[in-house]
Amino acid sequence: MFTGLSAFPLTPVSDRGIDEEAFAGLVTRLATARVDSITALGSTGSYPYLDRAERARAARLAVEHAGSTPVIVGIGALRTRDVLELAEDAQEAGASGVLLAPVSYQALTADEVFGLYEDVTASLSVPLVVYDNPGTTHFTFTDELYARIAELPHVASIKIPGVQAAAAEQRLAALRALLPPSVTIGVSGDPLAATGLNAGSQAWYSVIAGTLPEPALAITRAAQAGDAATAAAESERLQPLWDLFSRLGSLRVVSAIAEVLGLVGHPNLPLPLRGLPDGERAAVADVVQRLDLR
Amino acid sequence: MFTGLSAFPLTPVSDRGIDEEAFAGLVTRLATARVDSITALGSTGSYPYLDRAERARAARLAVEHAGSTPVIVGIGALRTRDVLELAEDAQEAGASGVLLAPVSYQALTADEVFGLYEDVTASLSVPLVVYDNPGTTHFTFTDELYARIAELPHVASIKIPGVQAAAAEQRLAALRALLPPSVTIGVSGDPLAATGLNAGSQAWYSVIAGTLPEPALAITRAAQAGDAATAAAESERLQPLWDLFSRLGSLRVVSAIAEVLGLVGHPNLPLPLRGLPDGERAAVADVVQRLDLR
């Protein structure tokens, strides 16, 4: 389950709460496209903005509409007590795995982050993905901490930030040597995903796949078949999209893409987050059309 | 109310929730010392780690035990919807003002932060302190954004990060010129508080005052009386404390000081936050004794 393409759908929200119909539609779309797993309530799914009841409901909807595709559910929160409750809710909803980032307000020490994973894995029944997302958590994992956490029970995969092309193979080999064979390494950072997969990453935890599974699958399946050139070329074809990600942030861009494709309404992000201004939405619509994204 | 010394108490927690007796004791201690205001549920009060019911309860306890000292209550949360609910709860609890930081997971744009303050002040009945705490929110205010927000109704004060000695007077004068006269400027960053007060800041939003009101009052009252030398000397006397803040973080240090003084139990921070390791707690206890802090 923790190999291949994991797609992170938006959790569209309106004034009235989660737009359940749109969310179910996104999940169904991903299952139909045959991604390898669906990660509901990742950063793209706005997990820390939702309350416990909303998150339990989204987890249930995801499992219900994913068919036979395994669903991983994000359980991150600032406080360990809340993470433990969210882990229970995710498991009750039928999640096949959970995803946990060290969400921070006060900067956390390495021992505190280890303690969090220790406390959570101690009472878990499903596998866990360690979610290293320094852009949102502002916590920096060391390799030593990865290795310590990877020895904990139920730890199945580590979602690492993107690795730069020049050093990707060495980086992944070094990390591989540190971790138990049972723990997969998955890359995030969509613009560098082809690089990571071609360099030996076993999984891609993908923002774009949550809204546009087809182009993400094209990259993943090529890399998995050993056709590095096709994976790289397909990623290169999407460069205008990666440029938008880098300029406007991946969340706001996929939110606008999903709007343009009629998959979600407007607005669909939890306030204070707002969608892109009109001019930028037009730029996104233009890229969607030029690249024939759908 | 938004001038002088505002003291930020810890909200001590244990496995069983808020340690209400210890919290009430801290608030009473501050009122007895005659600080100018008490800010409950600031960063030192671990506001984002507590749930809505805990925060409403802490707000009530603070007002109840503060006597005639005005109480400001922190209402920050990731989602605007939650901030609005917390604002209602704080006002119902009898808060004289509220404190709001742009808590972030996804990085916020200036327009999103302005929108947050616009939405919250629109339905507020008490004054609001804008809480600029880049160390925890990872959001950087521009002066232009300060000025835009300061024009909103109910905005009474801006809590700015510490200003360095060399440029303090120019910095505060420049900011003063940008803001309506009714909006006070308060400094945070305890080690630079004497510098800020001596350079014209009207308030000190203080971590240390929440646990040790006396030395903070000594600095504040000297600066207010125009005795810059005494304010600076008193702050200099506390240098071993500021060194601990810089090495270990102010929250964990005041948590340990409060333990050493018997004001709170151990542990008293919400997991995954942990108190200092034993060796560091001994270093804190040593400074408490050497400086005769109480």
From TrEMBL, chains A, B:
InterPro entries associated with the record: Aldolase_TIM, DapA-like
Gene3D superfamilies recorded: Aldolase class I
CDD domains: DHDPS-like
Assigned EC number: 4.1.3.3, 4.2.1.41, 4.3.3.7
SUPFAM superfamilies (UniProt xref): Aldolase
Keywords: Lyase
A UniProt-annotated Pfam family: DHDPS
One MF annotation (Gene Ontology) recorded for this entry: 5-dehydro-4-deoxyglucarate dehydratase activity
Enzyme class label: lyase
UniProt cross-references to PANTHER family, sorted A to Z: 4-HYDROXY-2-OXOGLUTARATE ALDOLASE, MITOCHONDRIAL, DIHYDRODIPICOLINATE SYNTHASE
Protein family (similarity comment): Belongs to the DapA family.
Protein name: Dihydrodipicolinate synthase family protein
UniProt organism field: Saccharopolyspora mangrovi
